Amino acid sequence: MIENNKETVCAVVVTYNRKDLLIECLEALRKQTRPLEGIYIIDNASTDGTPELLKEKSYIKELPPENLTEPWEKEFEVKNLVDDKPIKIHYVRMHENTGGAGGFYEGVKRAYKEGYDWLWLMDDDAEPKKDALEKLLKVRKHYCVSALASLKVNINGKVIHPHRGYFNFKNIFNGIVKPFDEATLGRRYLKIDHASFVGILVNREAIKKIGYPKKEFFIHYDDVEYCIRLRNVGEILLIPKSIIIHKEAAKKGIYKRFLWKKSLRVPYEKLWLSYYSVRNLTWLGKKYGTSKIHFYYGLVKNYLRKIIGIILFDDNKFKRIKFFTNAYLDGLKGHFDNEKPKKLLYKED
Q: Over the stretch 7-41, which tens digit does the pLDDT of each residue have?
């Protein structure tokens, strides 16, 4: 447990099968001009040799046991690269892949219980600039702050939308988060509604009030759901001078022209991931939508567009239609069975 009069900051990094990017992220965290007190590494049962590389790079001193049946945590220590003071490394090896939502649930829960004052959440492909944390904390005394967010850019320095912005609850199928105006980036800070789990610094007092991320989401929109709760207890401030680079891969797939728009056709073997996006967005729309007419109209329109696209362009048409129908229905009913998408697509009838 943390015993310190100084405010403490712990990064929470969720990783899965991106060991080289993870090391780059950790190196950037060690270079912060305002050094961290701790880093939680949540390894979502990676299969690419992540523990071995962490050991090779001296982030951990021993490997986790094989055939885990529950999460395994061990504490180690590294030096920051600014003043050589220690940073606690809390390595958590998950017994199964719980998705980004499950990983952040686990990391936030553990770091909160450890007593850290601020939790800096990010994916393994994030790289904060060396003064990112320092610039965030300069604004922390603003009244009623539940979270602070770095400006998220791609590797070319271009602002990534809509990973920071404002909620649109009127018709969530037209985009549940609307981007901010880049013309406002000259301000010291901006009040926003949403910041993705890449560079959002959360106050423990807010966590005390709202709890942890919703692990049942698995992936997609878990950050939106959490920010809705964060906004209920305080402000979320975007600090434009605090920069975090997100080296996320561009979406790959085949695009078809459909109803005057480009339509991404997802390969069948990767389709299972699309379930969580549809289910979680539908659930959010039903729970928080401000107009039932707009919500159900958008849902039907969205559903029909998917079905027509499948009929025109895709293989395994019957299974795809059944798959998306279940995703929408499960969102409406609030059913969260994260094993279901693979069963629907790949289990032999």
A: 999 999 999 999 999 999 999 999 999 999 999 99
- C-alpha 253, offset from chain centre: 22
The continuous run of DSSP H or E covering 20 comes out as helix 19-30
Q: Distance between CA 116 and CA 298 in Å, rounded?
A: 42
| Residues 6 or more apart whose Cβ sits within 8 Å of residue 128 | 28, 29, 32, 122, 150, 199, 242, 243, 244, 245
**Cβ(275)–Cβ(220) below 8 Å:** no
Share of the chain above pLDDT 70, in %: 94
Q: How many CB atoms lie within 10 A of CB 62?
A: 10
Domain count, the chain: 2
- Return the pLDDT at 263: 72
Asked whether residue 251 carries a pLDDT value surpassing 70, the answer given is no
> Which CATH number characterizes residue 197's domain?
3.90.550.60
pLDDT tens column, 109-162: 999 999 999 999 999 999 999 999 999 999 887 669 999 999 999 999 999 988
**Domain span including residue 342:** 254-346
Identify the CA nearest to 189 among candidates 138, 127, 234, 246.
138
SS3 290: coil
Contact 164, 180 (CB under 8 A): yes
Q: Are residues 22 and 140 in the same domain?
A: yes
Rounded to whole angstroms, the Cα distance separating 186 from 25 reads 27
Decide if pLDDT at 3 tops 60.
no
Counted residue by residue, the chain has a size of 349
Residue 281 — φ and ψ, nearest 5°? Answer: -65, -40
Q: Please tell me whether residue 288 adopts helix, strand or coil conformation.
A: helix
> Is the same domain home to 197 and 267?
no
What is the number of other CB atoms lying within 10 angstroms of the CB of residue 155?
Answer: 10
Q: List, as one string, the DSSP characters of 196-221.
A: -SSSEEEEHHHHHHH-S--GGG-SSS
What is the average per-residue pLDDT within 187-211?
A: 96
Q: How many helices (H) and strands (E) does the chain have?
A: 10, 15
